[in-house]
Amino acid sequence: MTTVLMADDGPGRVLGLITAGTARTRTAIAQVTGLARSTVGQRLDTLFDAQLIRESPESLPSRGRPSRVLELNPRAGVIISVDVGEDRTRMAILDLNMAIIGDRVEKLKLGDGPEVLLDRITALVRELIVQQGLEQTAVAGFGLGLPAPVDYEAGRVMGWSVMSGWENYDIRRHLRRSWPVPVLIDNDVNLLTLAEHRRFWPSARHLFFVKAGTGVGSGMVIDGAVNRGAQGAAGDIGHAHVAGFGDPQCRCGNVGCLESLVGGWALARDLGEGHDARDIAERLRRGDSAAVAALRNAGRIMGESVAYATSLLNPDVIVLGGLLGSTGDDLMAGIRQVVYQRSLPLATRRLQIVPTRFKSRAGIAGAGHLVRDHVLAPATLDARLTVGKTPFGDQ
Ligand SMILES: [Zn+2]
After folding, report:
1. Which sequence ranges are marked TM in the entry (predicted)?
2. The pLDDT of residue 280
3. Looking at the structure, do residues 151 and 244 belong to the same domain, yes or no?
C-alpha cells in the first residue's frame, strides 16, 4: 500500500473543494479526488467531528437517492479583524464566510505607541465578543491591517510611515499574549488588494490595486496571491519618483514622489485649503471646479505611474480605491487616458480599469480573508485536526 499524503488528499483538501464549490457531494468529491468512497467518508467524518462542515438544506439530484450537499459551517470559529487607520480604527468579528457578526469604530491615536494601542484594541475586541455573545466560540485567527510598510513574516512595521514609534516592535508577540491563535499582520493596501481580489475578481490571475487617499499606495495579486516582495515593500508606488512635474517635498523625506504630487495632503497644499483627502472629497462633493481640475490633473500624473506598473505586470484588472479613487470619475478618467496612451496594445487589450465596488469595510474584509486563507489552507488545517476537536482556539 502507498502512504497517504495528507496535504494532497487529506480532510483539508476535501474542505477546500467544498468551500470553493468544486465538489459539494460525496459522489463529486470521490470523482474529483479519485479517492475511494470509504476514504471520502473518513475525511468527511473528520470534518463533521471538528464541526467544520454541515449538510446544507439543498440537495442535488443524482442516480438513485438525491445527494446531500455539504457546506462549510461558518460558525466553526470566528475571525477577529482589525483595520487600523490614521485616525480611526475599525474592529470586527467575522464568521468563516466573511459575514460581519459585529463591528465598531473608535478614534485611536497611533502616537500612543504600540503597547497602549494594542492593549486598547484587545479590550475593545473583548467587549465586542461579549456583546455578541461569542465567549464560547473558538477564535480561528486575528488579522490586523496597518497604515505602514509591514514585514509580513516578522509581523513588524518597517521603515518610514505615519506609524512613527512602532518600527520593529513585535506586534504579533504582543497580541498573542491575549490571543493565542494565528495572528497575521499586513499593510492596509495589501489587505484592500486581497479583499478586492477574493470578493470581486477571484478568477483574475493578476490584479493591481491603487489606493488614492491622503496617502497613495498600491498592491498586487500575482498568480492569485498577494505579492509583498522581499521585505514587504513591493508596490509602494506612492514614494517612487515621477519626473516632469516638479519636485515638491514629500512627507517621507524625499522629493518628487507620486504622493507629493497627487496625495490628498498634496492636493490640499496646492489648493491652499484643508489638509487631507477628506477635505478634497468634501470640495468635490460641492462641485468645486478647482478641486475637480486638480483631481483630473492628478489622474494624469498618477497615470504615468500606473502605466509603468501595467507594462511591468500586465495585470488582468486594475482597481482604483481609496477616498479619492471612489469619489466620481475625474481621477479615473486621467489614469485611463495615460495608461492606454503609454502601454503597448498587448498589455491593454483585455485590461479592465475599474473603481472599487466596496462601499466600506474593505480593510476588514481583507484582514478576514488573510486569516481565512491561512487557517483553512489544507496543510495548516490537517496539521491542527485532532479527532473530535475544533481546529481553532488556543494553541
Ligand atoms: Zn515620498
Report:
1. none
2. 95
3. no
